[in-house]
Every structure is written in C-alpha cells, then in structure tokens.
Specification:
With 184 residues, this protein is mainly alpha-helical. The protein folds into 2 domains: 100 residues, Periplasmic binding protein-like II (D-Maltodextrin-Binding Protein, domain 2, 3-Layer(aba) Sandwich); 52 residues, no CATH class. It contains 6 helices and 3 strands, in the order αβαβαβααα. A 3-stranded parallel beta sheet has the order 2-1-3. The chain is globular, with a radius of gyration of 24 Å.
C-alpha cells in the first residue's frame, strides 16, 4: 500500500511537471503595431517580426496594420503582448496623459530608435506655398486615423489659427496623395 502511494505521488509530480513544461513551451504570439501598408512602419515591423520569430524560442511575432503611433500606443497600453512603432511626441503625450491620451496615461518604455525622423510637409507646384505660414486657408492632410500627425502640429508650426486651415477628413497617405492634385 505504501509503495502504491509513493508511485502515485511520483506519477502526480511527473504529470504536473509535464503539464507545466508543456504550458511553458507553448508558442507565444506577439503583435507589432506598425502603420498603414504604404508607410515605413509596416515593412520595418515585418522585418522585426521575422527577427523575433526566428531567434526567440516559442515566439511567433507578426506585423499588424494599424493607424500609426496613437493606435500603437493604445494597443501597448491594452496589456496584451504588443510592441508598437511610435513617434516620440506621441509617446510623450501617452506618458503624460495629454492630447489623445487624456483618458489616462500609458506607461511605455523605449526599446530602440529605428531611424532619425523628420516631419515632411509637401505640396505640388503652383500652390504658392513656400513656408508654413502659407498654409493659412489651405487644405492640410491630418494623416491617417490613429496616427500622430494631427492638425495642431501644423497649426503650431505655422502660427495660423486652427480655423484658418481647412482640414479634409483624415485620409491614408496613399489616398491623400491622390487628392493632393485635385484639391490644390
């Protein structure tokens, strides 16, 4: 009777350890919040996902199409296994709980700087726009929904009143490029 109890205990411990190890060894998934497929974040996210998936045991990472920085920060703040590509100003707003994060600060950490980033403002020839102040009365793309490009950045850079700049609905970069010729 005593031998059977010991065998049962050994079997129970072995089964418990096996279940624990199999749960530990199960593949874990991780999403990388990027941006639209036409931007720079998406291909970079795919490359990072490949590196993580190929070099971390039991990890399957995938690049996920999102609206951009703001959406990515909200996904990271959801508590699910996300990495998100974001602009520094959007990350600062998230940490401070400002602008699009007034509902609550998101404690984020920087993992790496991918590339030096500059804001680009473009137009087509013939618009008469040569400096930021010339945007007064013009249509300005506010970027993709969920990105961190928003009208206040342009307004503060141009010293123009927000009601003096006409903003069309938020459009993807690809769609905006198509409309740029039409609206100027």
């Amino acid at each position: 009777m005593q031998t059977t109890t010991k065998m049962d205990a050994v079997l129970a411990v072995a089964l418990s350890a096996g279940f624990a190890l199999s749960a530990y060894a199960q593949q874990k998934t991780m999403s990388i919040g990027t941006g639209g497929t036409g931007g720079v974040y998406y291909p970079l996210g795919g490359a990072v996902a490949n590196v993580l998936s190929n070099n971390l045991p039991n990890v399957q990472a995938t690049a996920e199409v999102t609206g951009g920085s703001v959406d990515n920060l909200k996904l990271v703040g959801s508590g699910k296994p996300y990495i998100g590509f974001v602009m520094a100003d959007a990350a600062q707003d998230a940490v401070k709980g400002e602008d699009k994060f007034k509902s609550g600060a998101i404690p984020v950490r920087t993992l790496m700087v991918l590339y030096p980033n500059r804001m680009h403002v473009v137009t087509v020839d013939g618009t008469g726009i040569t400096k930021m102040a010339d945007l007064k009365g013009k249509r300005v793309s506010t970027g993709s929904p969920g990105s961190d490009r928003y009208i206040s950045m342009v307004v503060s850079s141009s010293n123009a009143a927000s009601d003096s700049i006409r903003a069309p609905p938020a459009l993807s970069l690809r769609t905006w490029a198509l409309y740029l010729r039409k609206w100027t």
